[in-house]
Task: structure prediction
Amino acid sequence: MTVITNIEDLRVLAQKRVPRMFYDYADSGSWTESTYSANVSDFQNIKLRQRVAINMENRSTASAMIGQPVAMPVALAPVGSTGMQHADGEILAARAAENFGVPFTLSTMSICSIEDVAANTKKPFWFQLYVMRDRSFIERLIERARAAKCSALVLTLDLQILAQRHKDLKNGLSVPVKPTLSSIVNLLTKPRWCLGMLGTQRRQFGNIVGHVSGVNDVSSLSAWTTQMFDPTLNWADVEWIKKRWGGKLILKGIQDVEDAKLAGESGADALIVSNHGGRQLDGAESSIRALPAIVDAVGSQIEVHMDGGIRSGQDVLKAVALGAKGVYIGRPFVYGLGAMGEAGVVKALEIIHREMDITMALCGKTRIENVDKSILLPGTYPV
Result:
């Protein structure tokens, strides 16, 4: 039996158990993947200050994100097609997050619908919204999120146009899927995954199929998705969505100080420093390098979160030290889900929490709210 000690162990196991086209979908970036790689490597360049002879008892990682109490300042990021990593994946991940005490964010492009997740959880989750040309569909999505008692809306701003991801094209990942001979052969080596998918009816984009006029199956969904994302998205749309929603609003995809200032002026509750996990503009700055300047510019005006490159509890602590009030994990929980289902998501959260707690103590802090740049070695972090 494999002993799981870190997120990399979960990744390796997920790669063995998830069909290549779906594993690659989650674990890849656009074009050369330079930003995808930098998101991880730039964390490794930041060094920590070890402190000693300090009472390390009674530690706490409890915090809050947009006023919501959390067991640690970590949320599960919205990940499209999570339900193709493991049968009923969004439901399993949401339950794991709920039981651990951190937020789960459901993607617009999820396999399990808003209603599916709401019916299988007890506490409110967050919903991530993509802006599409069909504004009536957006209005209905917002109303469905409200009916499901979602406690925050995460509006993604950096996917007006979809960047090219080479692995998806080579694997035939599209709507509908166009499998290659190689991917079919690979699928036959994943019996555990196949049995799981045979046992569920949730195999399409649950938030879309049956909820858009004329989109009732995979073939009609394909035609709709070709003109789905709206390249005209602008700050007036953000204001319209804010008014339509009326609840907590988080803006995802901010990388530039000027955009951060506009986000602060929008009246949103938080922004997420994010480059979409390196899946959009290849060659863009890593999220952790972009974070400090944005915190300095707008941190007193709007709550600043970040995602991209988190692979350990130490990474979480470094982001918090640089001013993030919360971070989001995508790939780590997806690895756990693909590897072990709900138990794997719990394992990913446990690993990150333990690493963060121990590192915080060895840096001389016992409460997460007291973590700041003083735990970092000067000259090793971006300013």
Remarks:
- The first helix runs from residue 7 to 17.
- DSSP finds 16 helices and ten strands in the chain.
- The chain has a mean pLDDT of 95.
